[in-house]
């Protein structure tokens, strides 16, 4: 079992939007939910959301990017999944933007197998309630198999939530506003395939898919990661063409490292500190077949062996 995370208190850092379009606290008109396009410069969509059946408590835009859960009132939990499964030996990264203020039992972003239901007539944290799904809650915890650990400060209206799935080594990492939160799930290769998923219990809650891409695991991807890391470490200026290639195709392979700028905000302009995972202090390789261990105090770290 895993120790449950302590509840947040008033001194905790609060979730923030990605840009300044969402700093105002007054209600946003329904027609203005799509007014902000910050962070959506890359028009890359390898997959979109799968259209649910007519009985679903979900309304989807014609382009199948924007999803509104429980458009009138909520009577439980609804979920949608991506139209394309994530399979072994590929790297995947996708992002959603939270367009409404999250509230209620839970709003989650994550992944799940084909066995995860798309609706339940109960108010629950659907992603992570069993061994077939993994989810990040808007409240912060990461959930799996009815257990949770603190994953981040959570997300709010205007936040961008990224999901990085490495089906080559079997790991899952969440990003909040393009900042890595650390690898938190291991051993995903026990699933033949996983689907991107989002779910909500809150009436009139809306999310928009803003990016979805994948890379086949290869020497090219590994070489790009090493080269990008070396360039960052030595402060070299890459040729514009090569740098644009990194940003457009291989930015996911850049080191998951962050620094603090003068205002205390996270920045990726320079790379000086590597984020670590809990397993890295115990084992020579962080990709042992223990899973779901991260951001847990040393005395409470537990590795479950398959």
Overview of the molecule:
The protein is mainly beta and 306 residues long. It is built from two helices and 17 strands. The chain has helices spanning 219-234, 240-250; strands at 58-60, 66-69, 77-81, 86-87, 90-98, 107-112, 119-120, 133-137, 141-144, 147-150, 160-166, 171-176, 179-185, 193-200, 205-216, 259-260, 266-267. The strands form three sheets. Strands 3, 4, 6, 7, 8, 9, 10 and 14 form an eight-stranded antiparallel β-sheet that branches. A seven-stranded antiparallel β-sheet has the order 1-2-15-5-11-12-13, with no helix packed on it. A two-stranded antiparallel sheet has the order 16-17. Strand 8 (133-137) and strand 9 form a beta hairpin. The chain is globular. Residues 1-11 and 255-306 have low confidence and may be disordered.
Summarize this, please?
By secondary structure, the protein is mainly β.
Summarize the biggest pleated sheet: 8 strands, antiparallel
- The chain-level mean pLDDT equals 76
Oligomer: single chain
Structural class: mainly beta
Q: Which regions have little confidence, pLDDT < 50, spanning 5+ residues?
A: 1-11, 255-306
Q: What's the total number of strands? A: 17
Shape: globular
Alpha carbon gap, first and last residue: 14 Å
Overall helicity: under 10%
Order of SSEs:
EEEEEEEEEEEEEEEHHEE
Total helices: the number is 2
Gyration radius, in Å: 19 Å
**Strand content bin:** 25-35%
Keywords: Ubl conjugation pathway
GO cellular component, one term: SCF ubiquitin ligase complex
InterPro entries: B30.2/SPRY, B30.2/SPRY_sf, ConA-like_dom_sf, FBXO45-Fsn/SPSB_families, SPRY_dom, SPRY_SPSB3
Protein name: SPRY domain-containing SOCS box protein 3-like isoform X2
């Amino acid at each position: 079992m895993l120790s449950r995370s302590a509840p947040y208190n008033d001194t905790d850092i609060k979730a923030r939007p990605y840009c300044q379009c969402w700093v105002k606290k007054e209600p946003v008109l329904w027609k203005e939910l799509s007014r902000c396009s910050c962070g959506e410069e890359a028009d890359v969509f390898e997959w979109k959301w799968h259209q649910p059946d007519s009985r679903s408590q979900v309304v989807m835009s014609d382009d199948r990017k924007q999803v509104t859960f429980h458009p009138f009132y909520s009577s439980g939990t609804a979920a949608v999944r991506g139209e394309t499964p994530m399979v072994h030996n590929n790297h995947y990264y996708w992002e959603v933007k939270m367009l409404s203020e999250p509230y209620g039992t839970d709003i989650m972003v994550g992944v799940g197998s084909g066995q995860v239901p798309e609706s339940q007539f109960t108010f629950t944290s659907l992603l992570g309630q069993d061994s077939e799904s993994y989810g990040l809650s808007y409240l912060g915890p990461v959930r799996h198999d009815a257990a949770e650990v603190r994953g981040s400060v959570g997300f709010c209206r205007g936040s961008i939530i990224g999901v990085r799935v490495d089906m080559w080594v079997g790991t899952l990492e969440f990003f909040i506003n393009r900042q890595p939160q650390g690898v938190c799930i291991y051993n995903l290769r026990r699933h033949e395939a996983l689907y991107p998923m989002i779910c909500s219990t809150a009436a009139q809650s809306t999310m928009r898919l803003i990016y979805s891409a994948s890379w086949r695991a290869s020497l090219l991807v590994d070489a790009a990661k090493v080269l990008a890391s070396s360039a960052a470490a030595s402060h070299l200026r890459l040729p514009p063409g090569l740098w644009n290639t990194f940003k457009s195709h291989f930015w996911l392979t850049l080191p998951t490292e962050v620094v603090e700028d003068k205002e205390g905000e996270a920045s990726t302009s320079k790379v000086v500190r590597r984020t670590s995972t809990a397993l890295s202090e115990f084992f020579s390789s962080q990709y042992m077949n223990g899973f779901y261990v991260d951001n847990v105090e040393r005395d409470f770290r537990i590795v479950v062996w398959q």
